From TrEMBL:
SUPFAM superfamilies assigned to the protein according to its UniProt record, in alphabetical order: NAD(P)-binding Rossmann-fold domains (SSF51735)
Family: Belongs to the short-chain dehydrogenases/reductases (SDR) family.
Protein name, per record: SDR family oxidoreductase
Family matches, as InterPro entries: NAD(P)-bd_dom_sf (IPR036291), Sc_DH/Rdtase_CS (IPR020904), SDR_fam (IPR002347)
Keywords: Oxidoreductase
Length: 264
């Protein structure tokens, strides 16, 4: 679990999301967990989804122990029926959906472009990341329209822009998400529905292992203008901003929260 600093009011702004209902996919660990905890600390009621019920229940319990409101629902990203179920559960429980965070994404390992398994890898990543985000957005759309608006936060990656060798499946899915986000911003802005993409850089244990294994740790660190790898709590405050009314005039944007690796 992330540390509790992301729940502190000096980080999130206590009450900044008071009265809002938020859904965070992939909330059992890492960035998703940090965002769910920060949202709850800022006053939101939060639904956490993930593939492993025990993980999201543990995060929900920690949120509840801090006096906030959270509900854990087992759901796989990329399953349309489960996306519809999660959205309906939010409406049944709390009557609205103000914020949707599409963080969940299956990750396929390094694979050269010429490998025959590449097509299968692309389908895995696109199903969980792109179609998973699309399905959640489509299911939430009528409820956000009916209530007068909402905020959608999707997740891209600087790998999608850099196109590092061996990561076509991941890069393609992340760039598809950026296109999805901008299209939603264009089409749904008239309904006061905002959509933005965060490019995060928060090192997971697997990512750090990979950098050490491939000998690219120092090279990747050298790309970071601020001189350090991020942690999940570095990402959460930007998500809180995009979920809050402070970002009421921000939509269709890609925001890098990665220490200055990618500068637009």
């Amino acid at each position: 679990m992330t540390n509790k600093t992301c729940g502190a009011d000096q980080v999130t702004g206590m009450g900044r999301l008071a009265g809002k209902v938020a859904i965070v996919t992939g909330a059992g660990q890492g960035i998703g967990e940090a965002i769910a905890r920060a949202f709850a600390a800022a006053g939101a009621k939060v639904i956490l989804t993930g593939r492993t019920l025990e993980k999201i229940e543990a995060v929900a319990a920690a949120i509840q122990s801090d006096g906030a409101t959270a509900l854990a629902i087992k759901a796989d990203a990329g399953n349309a029926n489960e996306a519809a179920m999660v959205i309906q559960r939010a409406v049944d429980e709390w009557g609205r959906i103000d914020v949707l965070v599409n963080n969940a994404h299956s990750f396929t390992d390094f694979l050269p472009l010429e490998d025959p398994k590449m097509e299968a890898n692309c389908k895995v990543d696109l199903q969980s990341a792109f179609f998973g985000s699309l399905q959640m957005m489509q299911a939430a759309f009528p409820h956000m329209v009916a209530q007068g608006g909402g905020s959608i936060i999707n997740f891209g990656s600087d790998f999608g822009i850099r196109c590092e060798p061996g990561f076509l499946a991941y890069a393609a899915s992340k760039e598809a998400i950026r296109a999805l986000t901008r299209t939603a911003a264009r089409e749904w802005g008239k309904h006061n529905i905002r959509a933005n993409t965060i490019l995060p850089r928060a090192m997971s244990p697997k990512a750090l292992w990979y950098l050490e294994e491939t000998g690219t740790h120092d090279a990747e660190l050298a790309r970071v203008a601020l001189g350090r790898f991020g942690v999940p709590d570095d990402i959460a405050p930007t998500a809180v901003f995009l979920a809050s009314d402070d970002s009421a005039f921000v939509t269709g944007q890609t925001i890098g929260v990665e220490g200055g690796v990618t500068m637009f």
